[in-house]
Amino acid sequence: MTEVPKKSEPSLRETFRAFEKNLGFKNDIKWPVAISIILYHLFGIYWCYHYALPVKWQTVGFAMFMFLLSGFGITGGAHRLWTHKSYKATLPLKLFLLGAFASAGQNSLLQWVRDHRVHHKYSDTEADPHNANRGLFFSHIGWLMLKKNDQVLARGKQMDMSDITGDPILRFYNKHFAYFKLMLCFVLPTTMSMLLWGENWRCAIAWQCFLRFLIMFHCELTVNSLAHAYGYKPYNKNIVPSENRFVATVTLGEGWHNYHHMFPFDYKAAEHFDPFNWCTYFINFFRSIGWAYDFREATPEMINATAKRLGDGTPVHNPVDITNSDY
Fold first, then answer.
1. Segment 166-211, tens digit of pLDDT
2. Which of 56, 89, 107, 237 registers the highest number of CB atoms within 10 A of its CB?
3. Residues 325 and 246 grouped into a single domain
4. Residue 28, Ramachandran bin (φ over 0: left; ψ between -120 and 50: alpha; else beta)
5. pLDDT the model gives residue 324
């Protein structure tokens, strides 16, 4: 009598793949990353509920300062300087921006710049790392939890990254980025709160490792999600990115996204001057002391012609020379 072979139990990987297929995901889930992100948020809620209060005013003020510093590292550094090369910076400013970017706890500068360049070239297509047409959750944070599809990977390999990989300072920075991120985003800010004004270590962790870090993290992600879902389109009604004042406010000036996708080289990332475009304030400060130079801007003629030809009819404002303004 022939013995019927027993069916082997599915492996953990096969079980996860079956679960992903049932959920209808186009990409495999990066389970270690997805679980880490979810647990970090849940643990952060628990920790802040128990330890964020009472808090010293210095701790709150320092968390706000770190929010601005890390935000500037993303907007003024990774985005406007290294991704779009909308201005040039001296060595002291570059080092300052590299430290500020590390304090934001993002992916490495090389990964950030590559993904954002792909996003602009193939915006809201299957080759876009955070394609907004796949839903608000995916474009906000879901894309970080899933493996990139073949088109995103292929286009990423085609990006010219020689300006990043060919710079010896940036090569060293990217090679040791995990260390810089750990120290400048988590260890040093928390330790400073404890040593300089005697904050309780649990409270210091709550405000630096969870509140400040996660609020900035999600503010930055709204550019990929909310600014691709809500707003008006005075410069090109045929693309997904929109002008979104809320996003512009929480990201220090990055929410004028319809304009930015039409004129990504403009260092202001906006046509009109917005009082909450703090990143442009910062850049212009360094311009005034000679640390930033060779600025690129779209001309009023270029802007008006584009808006007249492609815009949705929403009134636009001519650029303001904020370098010499009273702001």
1. 999 999 999 999 999 999 999 999 999 999 999 999 999 999 999 9
2. 89
3. yes
4. beta
5. 39
Q: Do 185 and 278 fall within a single domain? A: no
- Write down the pTM of the prediction: 0.90
Pick the last residue of a domain from 203, 235, 260: 203
- Domain-located, residue 172: yes
Between the CA atoms of 307, 312, 315 and 317, what dihedral angle is there, to the nearest 10 degrees?
-40
Residues 191 and 292 in one domain: no
Alpha-helix residue ranges (DSSP H) falling in the chain: 12-23, 31-51, 57-72, 91-102, 109-121, 136-137, 143-145, 150-158, 162-165, 168-175, 177-181, 188-197, 201-205, 213-221, 245-250, 257-262, 278-288, 300-310
Domain boundary among 171, 203, 235: 203
